[in-house]
């Protein structure tokens, strides 16, 4: 410039950007002697007093937001008809300039999403919406620090005469379907920003936004009516876990997207971490299976360098340290290890590893006893508590007594599975005692039910919570949505939680690790104390619960199986019906020491209750304590529910958290609902988490 240009106290140094609403200059603040970014509205826009008034209001609002990833606004002013905002001048380039060279490395892209998501959650917490999240409004410096720019300009333009001269307010490639529906009446809320951030993430990972076209109208039409192209088609190297997260954040219906930007970022990080660590974890699991404890430590160290809390790595490493310090492991020659591994392999192939019980003669098949609750039927002995390697046609059998049938049922041929199978076609309410640990299991017939909660259910949960707590949030219960139809095959499930005495058998047999603690919340001696043999075992992480179920020839129930056993096809709110009754469960009542205690009931327990307590809380199929006492691990990784019907769902293929069900003695009335679910780290062990087992019935 031959002549220095000034706007008020600001000396214009250079133009650094230009958009539909304003020009951005690098400028010098003469009074404070600092470099700023000066955004000056285009002259034709400054003639609308309603618009300029809104710009000033939005800018002042943004100036009150203090966040490391939101640009700081220093001043809003007007000089000789020129309206401006002075902001911190940031080094670096806008994200669209970085993307000109193609997609970003996944680690860098996810880091940028995390930073901008944190900024958006701060904005949304104030009841504000950005409305124009796009690469051009994100600056990224060489240290990969990202900052969100241009707050409030689009909102300021809405409802002014600019809407009659500008066809689209915002950037079409990054507009949510509800923004794109120009004739629609839906109010734009914070979820439009989350959608836009999803588009930005898609572009960073794929190399282009999901929707492009020859005109803004064509692009907006695609946002509303067309599914986004699968990211892995455009970028085959992208992990599939990232794809599923991207597709969810780009859902057409905003209720189906992530409801917080931070949740989206966390799921994206989880998916990336899973893609990075799954191969290492699989190697670690193989090393555990091979008893290569030195390799377990090496692989575990590599995994923990990325994620110190990943799955059950910490406990596996602790297990490896214990084994390596054991004299037997230090002395055993390599050739002996080879022989042991070979023998183990033969036993696994033969099907008898972990199932052999020396109390049974090797030529005997023992039929399990079924206790029917329905009319008697003819019972034929075809079951066994021995592994499938034992010949079930042996002449040394022990048949169950035959009773006069009131109902004739043809007994089908049943092939033995990993767990003992009852000896007739069972019916709902039938029980069978598992020989390994003495647990009584109940039969749950095949059927369909509505899993999850609708809006009324979530509102009711919030009401129950708010009656006793002041910090309840609706978002605590939204993971129960949407309601979806689930069809399940028949299965057997433990009538109660696994008890201390039962778990101790597994520990003494060398197949389970001891609980992390032998205390409970109010008792200094709990596990191993005969006074509490019949109380549920606690302080057991997810993998230890899974190990126990495997030892008894079963598995952890799926989340769908657990909920079906609790509420049935009638979809009750609680296991016993739709009305809460504090006499039917152990929950945070008058004996509970927490501030949300319900003083209206007194169950006599300030901690866990015996597993077979509260017969009044029995579910439709005969299970006890599906509400309260202890949370219960289930098999599933934690994730969102689908909207479509599912058959025997097993949950997401991987994840960071596992699901626990049923509430506990710590939770209030809201925790007793059959649809309630919480996410817990698989390594978590606590005074309020236990488990029960299940196995699929024979076809």
Number of E-state strands: 23
Radius of gyration: 31 Å
| Whole-number total of structural domains | 4
Termini separation comes to 85 Å
Write a structural description:
With 699 residues, the protein is α+β, with helices and mostly antiparallel strands. Mean pLDDT is 81; it is low at 153-168, 328-332 and 339-423. The longest helix is centred in the middle third of the chain and has 29 residues, at 261-289. It folds into 4 domains: 6-88, Phosphorylase Kinase, domain 1 (2-Layer Sandwich); 93-258, Transferase(Phosphotransferase), domain 1 (Orthogonal Bundle); 332-416, no CATH class; 440-696, paralog of FGE (formylglycine-generating enzyme), CATH 3.90.1580. The chain has 19 helices and 23 strands. 42% of the residues are buried. The chain has a 6-stranded antiparallel sheet with strand order 1-2-3-4-6-5, with helices on one face. The chain has a 5-stranded antiparallel sheet with strand order 11-13-14-17-23, with helices on one face. A 4-stranded mixed sheet has the order 21-20-18-22. The N and C termini lie far apart (85 Å). It is elongated, with a radius of gyration of 31 Å. Helices cover 30% and strands 14% of the residues. A hairpin with a 5-residue loop joins strand 8 (138-140) and strand 9 (146-148).
